[in-house]
Amino acid sequence: MALLLNDSDRNAWDAAGWVRGLVNAISSSTADFAGEALERLKKNADLASYSPHILHAYESQKQRRREAAFERPDWPKTVAALDNGPPATVADLHSLLVAQLRDARQRIQRTNTDIFKYFWNVDAYNRPEEPRPEEACRDALVDVIRPTLKPLGIAVEPEGHMAGDKRADMSVVIPGCKVLCEWKRDYHAKVWTAIEGQLERFYAHDPDAKGFGVFGVFWFGNKRPQMLPAPPNGMQRPQSADEMERMLIELTPAAMRHRLAVIVIDVSGDF
What we know:
The protein contains 9 helices and 9 strands. It has helices at residues 2-5, 12-27, 32-43, 51-69, 75-82, 90-110, 134-149, 194-203, 241-251; strands spanning 120-122, 128-131, 155-157, 160-161, 167-168, 170-174, 177-185, 213-219, 260-266. Helix 3 runs antiparallel to helix 4 (51-69) and helix 6 (90-110) packs across helix 7. The longest helix is centred in the middle third of the chain and has 21 residues, at 90-110.
C-alpha cells in the first residue's frame, strides 16, 4: 500500500515499478499457489511488456520451491539409497514408487498369466465379465507391488488413515516418510477432479508425505459398464490409457506436477 500512497505514484514508471514489486512479492513465496499465479501471469497477453520480468520471477520461484522442499538426508541414508537400499527421503520414496507402478503396469500387460484378470469378475470360463470394485482393484495392485518393495523395508498398505477420519486408498511407508495414493476406475464420476479435490486437498499434505502423492486410474477399455465422464475444458474423451494419462497430467497444475504423479494402468486385456 505504501507504493500507492506516497508522492511518487503519478508517473507511468511508478506504475511499472509497482507491478514489478507485486510480481517479486509473489515470487518470494515458496507455496504452490504462488507458482500457479505466476504461471497465469506468464500467459496473460495484457502483461506482455512485463514478460521478461515475469519469466525471471517464475524461474526464481521454482528454484525457491525446490530448495524449500529438498530434504538433506544424512550420509548413511544417502549411501544406502545409492546402493539400491531404502529411499533416503520422501522424494526418493515417491520416485521409487512411481517406477514400481510403471513396472507393474508392464507386467500386467505382458505376462502370460493374465494378471489383468485380477481386476475383473470372471465367468465360469475365466472370461472377464465386469470390473471389480475399486477397493478390490487396489488390493490386487498392492499384491503386485508389495513383494518388490518389502525387501527394502517399505510397507505397502491398502488403506492409510488420515486426519479427520479420511482414508487414502493406499499408503507406501518407511519410517518418517509416506506417499499416499488415490485410485479410481476410469469411469468414476470424479476421475477428472480427484487429483486436486481428494489427493491434494486431503492426503498429500500429511506431515510425513510433505506434499507428495500418486493419483492412479484403472483403465477398463471398451468392456467398461458405462461411458467415461466427460473431461473438462471441452476435451474429447480419451481412447486409450496413455491418452487419459496425458490428459490428467495436463489437468494437474504445473506447480504440483513434480510431487503429484499420475499413472493410468491398462487392465482391459486389449493389449
